[in-house]
Each structure stands twice: as structure tokens, then as C-alpha cells.
Amino acid sequence: MPSLLEALERKYFSECEFENAHEPELHKRSDLPNDFTVTKCGGRMEFSIFIPRLSPLTSVPALLVLNDCDIDSAGDFESIREKCQRVRELDLAQNKLRDWAEVFSILEHMPRIEFLNLSKNQLASPVTALTAAPTINLKSLVLNGTYLDWACVDALLQNLPVLQELHLSLNNYKQVLIDAHEAEQRLLESETPEETEQRRLTKAHPTLKTLHFTGNPVEHWQEICRLGRLFPNLEALVLADCPIRSLQAVDSESESDSASHKYFPSLKLLNLSSAQLNSWSAIDQLAKFGQLRNLRVKHWPLWESLECTEHERRQLLIARLPNVEMLNGGGKIGTDERIDSERAFVRYYMDKPAEERPARYEELLQVHGKLDPLVNVSLKPDKRIKVVFTYNDVSESRFVDIYLTVNDLKVKLEKLVGLAPNKMRLYYLDQDYKEFGPEEMRFPNKQLYSYNIQSGDEIIIDAKK
User: Fold this and answer.
1) In Å, how far from its chain's centre is CA 379?
2) Are 83 and 92 in contact (CB under 8 A)?
3) What's the whole-number average pLDDT of the chain?
């Protein structure tokens, strides 16, 4: 397997070659530019142009991508230092690296690195304490699919003092087994001795702003609260595809309802898509995150149980979340949309029993007052209408579903007229525009309503010749 040095030399430092190096009998002509030559081919003269490949680099670019290269070691460190002077981002995902000492040595010889991707490397060896942290500039670290234990994660964090972004997705974490020192007394009061022994107390990391935790099978919000205590200044938290079942923190009976959000005072972005949440109380908990501005809550079981359209659901969400400015990846929520949503929310709950109304209803009732119900005007066409079918001068009125396609209608008419669908032509005749004549219904997948068909209109059936 190649070393990192061998992989980058293979990619960036190959010898300069020319496309036309082996062409026979090349001749220069004074009336052509220097790059042009003439090749004699029998009685013909063909023009050729040299296209040199890129000359060898003296150093690799700032973004160095060597993923899936089977790299298992570094190689000569002095050569790495010389050739990687400009590297700021290093992608080593899906390689064969195993030794953390090797990784830290690589980083030590690339002092300008700010981003490192080690996803899907088999880094199972423990991280030993370092006397001096060589990765002082590392700001983003990606460890997806590495299955590191929490002791290893903790040791890494201790040696990354300016880390701002951390990816721990797809690591099969069911629990967070490290917690900040400030939680020590709470742990002693709320956990069994076995749980306390498993969990590791460590220092908080106030520099970390963004944490990706997607696809880990964590179910309980108290585990997420530990992440909040570890990273007290967290601004973005991605928990997509985590089967979280409640946003209630239940570490101890003494904890107040504020425990769900009190460890996230700076959180601005939260992704909870595909969580297993089935209650509006979870949305009410999210409304208490004072700085939350960007929220994703797609694919919850709650949405499947609601008897409302997607637009109505969005209105109910916006009304319950006064601080959120972006919802489910859409554009910024404007003033008009928020007002319309709040008024729709008031109307939705004003006919509900008082015990079913959330606290937000009374708040918005004070803002918008008691509203008159909207007149229910349906603009949807009737699903079934009465149409006259004519075949061989015989007419018969029948009800038909306007959401059928032309081909579906032919199948249903087969029993009526005795013609196979592929032997049948249909013509639509609008009763209000008979002077324009019938229109052939030529498109088999077109639905009937798209012809603006009304009760009393006529469909003429004709056999293909």
C-alpha cells in the first residue's frame, strides 16, 4: 500500500510529457507559430500542435485530496514538509490509516492545515497525551464512520485547542460517554455508580461552534444535553437521522423544564430531521431556544398523523416558533408569511376545546384578537361529472372521474362499445364551443380535467380505420 508521500507524488509530481513526443517526421515551418509542426503522411501534409502536459509542481495546492488511495503511512516527513507548504485542507477519507501518532506527525509537518477529513479510516489505536499540540491551526475535523470511542474523542479534543467544527456522524453512538466537569455533582445525584464509572468527566471546549452528529442511534435528549455541556458555545448542531423520541431532559427529577435548552444558549441552527418525535410538545420545547433561527424538522411521525396540507402544517409551525427565521431549508420567513401563519393558527384552534389549545394560542389571541372564520370556498373541480358519450350515432350519458387519463377512459369504454383501447379514437366536444368542432384526445397520459371538461360536454368515440 502506498504512503501519503507516494500517493501525492503520483498525483502531482509525475514527469512532464508531450502528447506528440512519438510522432514521426515533424518539421518546423517559418510561416507558422513555434507551437505548430507539419507531418508528412504520404502525399498529404498534416498540421500538428504540441500540447504539453502540466509541468511538475514544486508544491501541492492548498486543497489536497487523497481519499480512497489505500494510504497506510506517511512516508518521508521532510519531503512532506517541503511539498505541502501550502496545504490548508487535507482529505484522507477512506484510507488505511491506523496509527494516531502517524496522523499527528503528518499534521506536524503540514503546519498550515485548518481542515482534516479522516472519515472511514480504521483509527483504533488510543490517542496518547502529547507534550505539545502540533495541530494548533486545525479548525475543522471530520471523523465520520471511524467508530472512535469517547475516550479517544476526548483525547483529541484536548489536543485541538482552536477546533471550531467537528463531524462525528455515523459512528454508532447510542450514548455520549464524556461530560464536562461542571456536571460532576449532577452526575453523582442522578446516575447509578455503574453509569458514573462508564462516563468520563473532562473539560468543556468553548471554541467549538459546529457539531455534526448525523445518523447515530441516540434516542434520549439528556445525551444531547451532554454535548451542550461539552460545547457551551455551540451555534450549529446537526442531528439528522437520530431516532430521538423526546426533547425532555430527564437526568433527574430536580431538573426544571428549562433543561432541554439551557445548555444551548448560543444555538442558531438545529437539524432534527427524521427524529422519532410524535408530539407538538417537542415544537413547543424548540420555541424556548432563544437564539434558534434556522430549524429543520422534516420526516417526523407527527406530520404523518396530521390531517392537513403541507402548507397548513408550515403555517402551524411558523406560528409556534416565533424566533425561527428559516424552516426546513426554505427561504427566510417574511413578515407577511408570519402574520398569515399566526392568524391561520388562531383560526385553527379557536373552535377546538380549551384543553387542546396550546399556550401559544392565548399569546397570539392577544396580538391578533378574535378572528372571524374564513369562508370555505373550494376551487377544486368536481371529481365526477356527467358526460355524453356518442358512438355510431348512439348517445348515452354517464358519470366519469375527471382524474382518469385518456388511456384509462379507453379501457373503461371497451365494455361499452366493444372496441379495444388501441383501436379507439376519442374526440372531446365542448358544449359551449360546438362551432369550433371536436378536439382529438391524442395524448394517452393526459388527465381528463386538463381539457377543462364540464358536465354536459360530449366525448365522441370512433373506431380507427
Assistant:
1) 35
2) no
3) 85
Residues 6+ apart with CB under 8 A from 37: 20, 23, 26, 27, 28, 29, 47, 48, 49, 50
Residue 175 vs residues 21, 100, 219: alpha-carbon distances, Å: 62, 24, 9
Secondary structure (H, E, C), the chain:
CCEHHHHHHHHHCCCCCECCCCCCCEECCCCCCCCEEEEEECCEEEEEECCECCCCCCCCCCEEECCCCCCCECCCHHHHHHHCCCCCEEECCCCCCCCHHHHHHHHHCCCCCCEEECCCCCCCCCCCCCCCCCCCCCCEEECCCCCCCHHHHHHHHHCCCCCCEEECCCCCCCCCCEEEHHHHHHHHHHCCHHHHHHCEEECCCCCCCEEECCCCCCCCHHHHHHHHHHCCCCCEEECCCCCCCCCCCCCCCCCCCCHHHHCCCCCCEEECCCCCCCCHHHHHHHCCCCCCCEEECCCCHHHHHCCCCHHHHHHHHHHHCCCCCEECCCCECCHHHHHHHHHHHHHHHHCCCHHHCCHHHHHHHHHHCCCCCCCCCCCCCCCEEEEEEEECCEEEEEEEECCCEHHHHHHHHHHHHCCCHHHEEEEEECCCCHHHCCEECCCCCCEHHHHCCCCCCEEEEEECC
pLDDT at 353 > cutoff 80: yes
Rounded CA-CA distance 247/288 in Å is 11
User: What are the beta bridge partners of residue 449?
Assistant: none
Furthest-apart CA pair in the chain: how many Å? 99
Q: How remote is the C-alpha of 247 from its chain's centroid?
A: 21
Q: What is the pLDDT of residues 90-143, one digit of tens each?
A: 999 999 999 888 888 888 899 899 999 999 999 876 666 554 455 578 999 999
Measured N-to-C along each axis, helices 359-368 and 310-320 cross at an angle, to the nearest 10 degrees, of 90
How confident is residue 465, by pLDDT bands cut at 50, 70 and 90?
Answer: confident
Instruction: Give the length of the chain.
Output: 465
Share of the chain above pLDDT 90, in %: 57
CB distance 180 to 204 below 8 Å: yes
